Amino acid sequence: RIVHTGMPFAHAKIGNFFQEKPELGNQFVEDSLLQSYLKRNIPQELYSKIQKDLKKFGQRVVTDIYSLHLQCDRELPQLEQCDAWGNRVDKLITSHAWKQMHDISAEEGLIAIAYERKFKEWSRLYQMAKNYLFSPSAGLYSCPLAMTDGASSIIEAIGDKNDWLKQRAWLRLTNRDPKQFWTSGQWMTERKGGSDVARGTETLAQLQPDGSYTLHGYKWFSSATDADMAFTLARPLDKDGLSFNGTSGLSLFYLEIRDESGNLNNIQIQKLKNKLGTKQVPTAELLLDGTRAFKVSDDGRGVASISNMLTITRMHNAMSAASGMRRIVNMARDYTTRRTAFGNVLKDYPLHIQTLARMEVETRAATLFFLEMSRLLGKEDSETISNEEKQLFRLMTPVLKLYTGKQAVAVTSEGLECFGGQGYIEDTGLPGMLRDAQVLTIWEGTTNILSLDVLRALNKSKGQALKSYYDVIDSKLNSINNETLEVSVDRVQQAAGSILKFASQNTDNVEMAARDFSYSLARTYMGALMLEQANQVDSTPQDVYAANRWCEQDLCPVIKHKSKDIYSKQIADSNFQLVFDGYSR
Ligand code: UCC
Ligand code: FAD
């Protein structure tokens, strides 16, 4: 017999302390600003129904949908290019969770709500608010949804003359039945250029006897390649085999990715992109080798026609930016109650809370901006928009996208730091949030390209857009009667005046001022929205405090720079010399 002094097998002792993880509450119930904005802008009888749905969904996005989100993060898409026998199959493998997101999107009406118009001009606001709750828990399914929404809007804009497209695609894109529901891609970028689409597009379109076309080209970025259809740009060839250069040679085409038997429509998936983030999304390079397609714009109106889609996807981009900020702030806030350092929980350190308060102010400003633009979009959809609002909406869509994209990167980066080392650990899910935020400044138009789009909108409106901008701000400020907001009202008023003044002056290089100008438009407008929110009868001290904090910053960087003549030819030359100092090739 053997004498045992203790059990030979045991768990290793690794200490008794385990940090509690951050928890999320109902994301609608916890979002006081979202509730307040919707309540004050949507008629009561409609809001009571919307509120009920958002409250239910606010819980889903932190329970079953959030589990699927984490699964999308873990089980990334794969491409099986050839089968075991060498046959090219281009099989795209996506996770069960990703497919579930498709079904949930249909069932919850994440696209449908906007197009059913059951809630009149507030349908779009409702839809965007619901997507705002979904986006940070969506496993990036928000990306295909954005393009699907954009595609639905294009088809609606094309109108009756293409009823077959409505029957064939629109009814599916806006469907609530998962079996019917389609998603769309948006293929604009080619190897030569994603910003300069007019010079970058090499894809050619060959007319067929039946009136359809075959497309021949290489699409350099195709997000969500598992979509059912896509809108894309190509150059139709005339009977002599010639095409036009530039934007006047581009037309818009509709295509389906697969035929009735599920085979790819003469498309080869060349590779899946190896990306910094958005890894959940199957983004591919595609060879179009005779892809059957249908021209849906007039000749040469490709870019103008796809710009409807750009407007919608840029709105989704901003929605994703604002909701991503809200999510990291909510998580970091909860963590301050669970994490102890130097003997106290983090929430007891004013320095740490100051950091979070600054993030909160940014998040509120972005959220109000995005909600207000969604409200205007709803009015445009239902044709109740005034001319002034229309001008404002066109001018401010690129501003919204570019400014909130930048905010999201900064706030999410700060948010990761709020978790200390854990913010850098992959399986907390936190690092992915930063990687996914970074793309918001790149796709759907980079910051500079959108700043140039602001100039385009200004020029096209011949000054009317800026006048509308000023008048809308002025009218918001005039209705403010709370004296604790007086200083901020003055600051916003002055900034708006300075913007007008700057626009009326001749600048050597107006393009060089475009980014600072756009930032000025953004900060000043967001200031007005924050003040409006703070001036409501039921506004809270937090609304007032946040508005005043926002308005303390430099609202109009373009003017400060102008006094230094920073956009002159001489400064442009000095910038060039500085950037290329020491460059030897
Ligand atoms: O990145 C992509 C998909 C990513 C996945 C989706 C994510 C969605 C968010 C999800 C969140 C999770 S798709 C690729 C996106 N690509 C871009 O955004 C392109 C960026 N480049 C530009 O925006 C450029 O400014 C271009 C391509 C529009 C420039 O083209 P052109 O042809 O050189 O510009 P033109 O000649 O000035 O404009 C041609 C016409 C004009 O109309 P007309 O002739 O009537 O005057 C313009 O006024 O297009 C009109 N136009 C616009 N109209 C141009 N831009 C706009 C606009 N933004 N709104 C209205
Ligand atoms: P470039 O045009 O080469 O720009 C490079 C830099 O130059 C940028 O900083 C830009 O701001 C700057 N720049 C360019 N011109 C000017 C100028 N005149 N003045 C000042 N600055 C300038 N595209 C699609 O069509 N469909 C998709 O589904 C899609 N999915 C994507 C998914 C991901 C993850 C990513 C990262 C991209 C995706 N894209 C997609 C492509 C994306 O839209 C483009 O990458 C983007 O529009 C920029 O184009 P580019 O890469 O050609 O950059």
UniProtKB/TrEMBL annotation:
Domain Acyl-CoA dehydrogenase 11-like C-terminal: 464-580
Ranges of residues in domain Acyl-CoA dehydrogenase/oxidase C-terminal: 300-458
UniProt family annotation: Belongs to the acyl-CoA dehydrogenase family.
Adaptive response protein AidB N-terminal domain: residues covered: 25-157
GO molecular function: acyl-CoA dehydrogenase activity
Keyword check for Oxidoreductase: yes
Keyword entries, A-Z: FAD, Flavoprotein, Oxidoreductase
SUPFAM superfamilies referenced in this protein's UniProt entry, alphabetically: Acyl-CoA dehydrogenase C-terminal domain-like, Acyl-CoA dehydrogenase NM domain-like
Location of the Acyl-CoA oxidase/dehydrogenase middle domain: 186-289
Protein name: Acyl-CoA dehydrogenase/oxidase C-terminal domain-containing protein
Stored InterPro entries: ACDH-11_C, Acyl-CoA_dehydrogenase-like, Acyl-CoA_Oxase/DH_mid-dom, AcylCo_DH-like_C, AcylCo_DH/oxidase_C, AcylCoA_DH/oxidase_NM_dom_sf, AidB_N
Cofactor(s) this protein cannot do without: FAD
A Pfam match: Acyl-CoA_dh_1
PANTHER family: ACD11 DEHYDROGENASE, ACYL-COA DEHYDROGENASE
